[in-house]
Amino acid sequence: MLRNAELERVAEIFVGGWTLEVTNQWWLDDPSTVSTGTATCKWLGDSFVRPQAEFDGEPTWDFVFGRNDARDEFVVLYNDERGVLRIFQLTLDGGAWTMSRADPDFHQRLVGRVEGDRMVGLAEASEDQGTTWRKDFDLVFERARLSRQAIKSHRDRQQPEHPARTRRICAPVRRQMAWPSRPGPSPPLRG
User: Fold this and answer.
1) How confident is residue 159, by pLDDT bands cut at 50, 70 and 90?
2) What does the pLDDT look like over 78-112, one tens digit per residue?
């Protein structure tokens, strides 16, 4: 299976090992508290990119980045230690990225800026459908040492050894399983 070229753009930003620092957390009694953690981001097969974070050795955030080609957009599934599930949209703009959602309960956005081997982010929330925003927290990702070599090694392992042969073998199967181009009965599968 070939990787989606647009999703490769996401992987270039996020794939690797990271240290995390979260500050200015509005929900804490002492907003000067600094929370530190780690994150890893890897390819999940050839179709998704999966960042996972932990703080104090406990899994905290779990994301899956994917793509909806028909809508020309990135989609992000989110889960955290509270059992919360959310869907975000992801946009890339040069050296910046934004994850956002506009749901009935409240709106959220996380805006990040890539600065070499670090990303600086700001999370905000709105409880009035985006009219006013409050800061949730500040977030800094620092790329872990040797991560670039790990990325290259991971990419090398993910590429098929014989891409031309793989495409030739899979092409007839894809044709047999293709959806009809117009309404009507599906073509029979040939054995």
Assistant:
1) very low
2) 999 999 999 999 999 989 999 999 999 999 999 99
| Distance, CA of 48 to CA of 68 (rounded, Å) | 11
Place of tokens 């009219």: 131
> Computed over its alpha carbons, how large is the radius of gyration of the chain?
20
Please, what is the Cα angle at 107 between 128 and 115, to 5 degrees?
130
Pick from 144, 43, 51, 134: which is nearest to 97 by CA?
A: 51
Separation of alpha carbons 36 and 5, rounded Å: 33
The closest alpha carbon to 71, from 15, 14, 6, belongs to 6
DSSP string, 129-190: TTSS-EEEEEEEEEEPTTHHHHHHHHHHHHS-S-HHHHHHHHHHHHHHHPPPSSSSPPPPPP
Question: For residue 119, which phi and psi values (nearest 5 degrees)?
Answer: -125, 135
Helix (H) / strand (E) containing 97? strand 96-102
pLDDT digits (tens, 9 = 90+) for 28-63: 999 889 999 999 999 999 999 999 999 989 999 999
Q: Are 44 and 50 contacting, i.e. CB atoms less than 8 angstroms apart?
A: yes
CA–CA separation, 118 vs 108, rounded Å? 22
